[in-house]
Amino acid sequence: MSVERVLLTPEAARLVPAEEWLALAPDVPVEVAEPGERRAKVQPEWTEGGVWRLCVGVGVVVDDVALRESVAVYLHVGRQTDLFDCRGVAVPLNDQGAAGVRNALRWAQTTQAAPQPWATHADVAAHAGHAAAQYRDPAHVRKAERVCSEATDELLNAFPELVAVLGTGFPFYCMTDTTHPDRDPVPPSIRVYTQEQERLFAGKLLPLTVLVDRPGRIWTKEELAGHGVNIGQESANAYEYLRHGAAPPTAPEAGALVEFERANVCVRGDRPWPCHVCTTLHDRRRYPEQSWERDFMKSCVRCRQTPYLPRAVGVLSSDIDLVALTAPGVDRHGLAERVSEWIDGHPRFFRHDTRWTQQLNGAHGPLDVFVTGMQDFLRAAAWMADRDRWMEVTVPSTVTWLPVTDIDYEVGKYLPLCMELLADRTPGGGFSAELRTAKARFAARVTAEQVLSSYRRDSSYLRQLAGNPQVAALLAVRNAGWRTATDESSEDSR
Fold first, then answer.
1. Position 400 confidence tier, pLDDT thresholds 50, 70, 90
2. What is the CB-side half-sphere exposure of residue 232 using CA atoms within 13 A?
3. Which of 183, 192, 229, 328 is the most exposed place for a label (fewest CB within 10 A)?
4. Which of 164, 169, 166, 155 is nearest to 339 (CA)?
């Protein structure tokens, strides 16, 4: 897409002197839209070169509804409470004020030099189907493992400060360990989840049979459901809202189509998905004047501008989750920032919430690197054998999300299930040896059934994984193998 014109409301125009407009966007006409002005809907224009040319609006207050409904994309730099319901395509640059206006103009200018891809809601729904098909592929486990291995090799070549790398998450709960030749298929619960998401995403799109009906018709929820429209929330999607203290979108009992759309429970397939523009403009590395970078796990649930949450879209693909361990004395956060820059410049890998059009219908999901001190990791692994509440053991880590975030990585939850060593370049394999000892001590104290029992009382993710017989069987084999290491070391000591 390429921005052909920017309309500023009077409030937005007053935030930045007019002489700056030309400096920030020399190739984009910038105009002031009068209060309450309702221009004819400016439809995106498809050029011969295959680029959508858009008219973009920038506003501040709740009275900007007319502009929101007129332009192809509306950028809101005022309070979140003034961006109340879903009207048009709105991108929340909440509370950004003058910095938001300047960055909006900069972004418009960048689209002149290099037109940007434009994803519609239909593209996002198609991605859900693509992801579900990937998990049905019998070779998907080995493909995902190969991508993790390739990412590990490149990461180690780029950053000599790293001494070891572990893979975690999918596909590592499909094997006893990376040295064993056998691989189990994708667990049934994962295939069921992705197929449910495929149906949910498709069901949010308003079909042609509904759109061509008489204007102004009042629809009931049951009538829309009869046309295949899913205006509810599956449990996994509702959980994304509820765990961050937000209520999921609720549909009216009856109303015109526009009322269901404004309630954010369904959408037209040709409408642009605002999130790839939002994530671009909230990336401080690209737009350093942003006063804050959104937490795309929390703030999105209060946005209500699309039924497709970025986090719900992002988890459909197979993430590349790597725990990268540093040598003593390395600045963990500083290294994570540099790893993030490396990923951003990589032709193949990308971070969460940064390159949506590459991720949609792509071969894999984003690369998440959890930068962690090696000694911190080994200390946490050793603690697991000494604590009754071993699942609560964490290790300080910095992850390359957008934004780069310091977290407590839940090593207690994932080490028994799905953490496998991919590379160790410590002298003499010292890290591998210490990790084997920690695993052996843990397995000598905690049985596989006790691990599964703990998982069944935890998050929906762990509960559904623990409910797969194949995952339970592999966990039992893994636990027994760790105990064998204890027995062999005992024999050696005698």
1. very high
2. 9
3. 328
4. 155
Q: Which two tokens stand for residue 464?
A: 């559904």
Question: Would you give the distance in Å from CA 251 to the centre of its chain?
Answer: 25
Residue 238, Cβ density class (10 Å: 0-12 exposed, 13-18 middle, ≥19 buried): middle
Cis peptide before 307 (omega within 30 of 0): no
Domains of the chain and CATH, by start:
2-116+274-287 (3.40.50), 126-192+312-493 (no CATH), 206-262 (no CATH)
Of 397, 379, 381, the closest CA to residue 335 belongs to: 397
CB 469 within 8 A of CB 475: no
What are 240's two structure tokens? 């994304």
Q: What is the mean pLDDT of residues 347-373?
A: 92
Token duo for residue 29: 């006409």
Q: How far is CA 26 from CA 47, 111, 289, 308, in A?
A: 21, 12, 19, 34
- Please provide residue 357's backbone torsions phi and psi, each rounded to the nearest 5 degrees: -70, -20
Q: What is the pLDDT of residue 58?
A: 94
DSSP conformational letter for 185: -
- Which tokens is 429 given? 């394999």
DSSP-assigned letters across all residues of 26-55: TTS-EEEPPTT--PPP---EE-TTS-EEEE
Q: For 126-140, 226-240, 337-351, which range has the lowest pLDDT when averaged over its residues?
A: 226-240
Could you give the CA distance from residue 69 to residue 72 in angstroms, rounded to a whole number? 8
| Paired strand residues for 56 | 6, 73
